[in-house]
Structures are given as structure tokens and as C-alpha cells.
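[Meeting: bench + compute handoff]

Bench side (C.D.) handed over the final construct sequence. Compute side (W.E.) agreed to return the predicted structure before the next meeting so the bench team could plan truncations. Sequence as handed over:
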Amino acid sequence: MLKLMVSFNITVIFAILLVACSSIQPTPEATPTSLPSSTPSPLPTETPVPTATAIRTPPALPADFQTGELNPLDVPRAYIPNTCQYLKDKWTSTNSAPGTVLMPIMFHSITKEGESNANQISLKDFEILMRDLHSQDFQAITAQQAADFLNHNAKIPERSVLLVVDDRHYAQYFDEFFRQYYEDWGWPVVNAFISFSGNTQDLWDENISLEKEGWVDHQAHGVVHNIPINPGSSDEYILGELQGSVAAFQQYFGKTPIAFIWPGGGFTPRGAELARQVGYLLGFTVNPRGPVMYNWIPLGDKADPNRPYFMPEAEVNDPLLVLPRYWDTDADQHIDAVRRIGQEAAKYTNTSKATELDYYDIVCSLQYGPIP
């Protein structure tokens, strides 16, 4: 009985354990949580540092052209104050080439009988001079062409001559001595005309006709004329010479003169100042110092004991109003020197071209534009 009860109890206990075990649910295996895939953050882009623009240093400009062909006391002067405008006009391809030279020559009387004084040239010597100028490729120009060249380097022949006849002459003088050169070679002549109140109507009429023909270019030579302007001249007298010429030219020739040929070669700083105020672009002395080029005019600083009649011009401080002129009686002796000066200047200037163009590009081009 006891074994039966023990067996029963074991059976019951086993059954209870089976039921208990069957009621316990197995713990599910943990599934690993998938983490979101991480997108790598882009590295910050570096802001580019601008490359520093190299600062270009303008080169030093070359010294002005010098020549041994001039007298040591005759020093070339530059007169264009604006360096950028000067370089642009100098190197513009349609303007005058470097070394273009202008030779002004003064004439008074031409005599068939022979030379009788310093103001007269014989017809024979005159004809030789004109032939020699032509054979060396010189061409005559007008006062306006000279002014445009000297102020802006406007195009003129590379060897130019300005034939300036002083004083009053009737048409016969020009017809006899100069017309053939106009007809054969196209050479004009400048007449430095005295606007004297006592001029006859015939004289005016004949010169008016010459002016209208277009080959005699009349320019101012004063009114009183025989009293040269000097340090003692009053403003009233100087203006009478300057403005009196303008008024007469406007009345008779229908034009305003641009050049004043100083009567007797007399000039002063005050005279030049007033001439500029009146509107003259050029002035001519009787000092045969040399030829002129663009921004290059030989002047004297002081009196020369070997040439006492040369008045120093430098104190005027306006080279265009004290331009030199060769005398007709010895101009032929200077043609070769004038030609050589032009050649030397062209050679010198072309060696400095790269430097000047580099300077212009750095300093001037932004404001003045490229050189045509």
C-alpha cells in the first residue's frame, strides 16, 4: 500500500512539473537592432585665396635725344607737359615717324645782281638752295601743318621745310621767285606780312588773291614792325602788334593768323605770354640754332659772345613761341646737318621704343587707351 502511494505521488509530482514546464514560454532570441547607415560628412571646401596681381614697376624713361650737330650753347628743350599724351602722339602709327625734322628758313630779298647785304640772297644762290632741298627729299609745308606737327606730332614729310618770306611783297615777287616751285613740286610759301595801316589797297588786293590761290600762307609780322618788341615795350604796344595783325588778317584775308614772326627778331617773356593769350600757336625768331622736331626745340640759355645777335630764348619758358629760323644766305650749308640730326634722332628713338611703350602700358593705357 505504501509503495502504491509513493508511486502515485511521484506520478503526480512529475505531472505537475510537466505542466509547469509547458507553461513557460521560451525567451525569444534578441534580434540585433540595425543602426542607420551613416553618410560621411563632406570635408569643408577651402575658399581659394586669390593670386596677388604682380605690381609692375614702370621703367625709367630714356633721356632726351642729344646731338653733336648743334652748337654746345644750343640746348634742345622738350615742351609737352603731359608724358602720357606725348608718348601716345609719338608712337601713333598714323602720326609723324621718329626723326621727322622741320627746317624753318627766313627770306627777305632775292636779288638778281648779287648779294649786297646780310638780308639779301642772290638769285643764283636761292636757286641752288631750293634744288638742294628738293634733291635731299625735303618738302615744303604750311604754318598750320607746322603747328599740328609741333603740338600733336601730326603727319608731315619726314624732311620738311618752312619757307618764311618776311615783310611786304607784291604778287610779282612771289610769281617770279616762288610760283615755279609750287607748280613743279607743290611747295607753299609762308609770307610774314606787315599789317601796316599805310599799306596800299593794291598791295592788299594782290596778297588777297595770292592767299585765295592757296599757296601763299600769310602769317603775322606786326603792324608798326620797325620798332621791335623789347624789355621796355608796354603791354599796349605789344598787344597793338599782336591784336592789330589779327584784326587786319580777319578783315582782309578772312582768317586768323596762328604764327607770329617777331619783327626784327625782338621778343620778351611778356610778349610771348601775351601772344599765347591772343591765340598764337607759334612764334619765330631770327636765331638759326637748328631744326626742330616734335617735343624737341634747340634754345639758348645765355648770351653767346661769338654770336652776339642771338637773343637767349630759354627765359621765355614757351619754346613754341621762340622757334629758330635759318637765314637764307647760309641755309644751304646746314642741310646735311639737318638731315643727319633727323637720322640720329630716329635711330636713338627706336632703341628706346620698347621702354617707352612699356611705360605707357603701365602708367598711361588705363586712362588714355591703347596706342593706335
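W.E. noted at the follow-up: Residues 2-23 form the longest helix (22 residues). C.D. will use this when planning the next construct.
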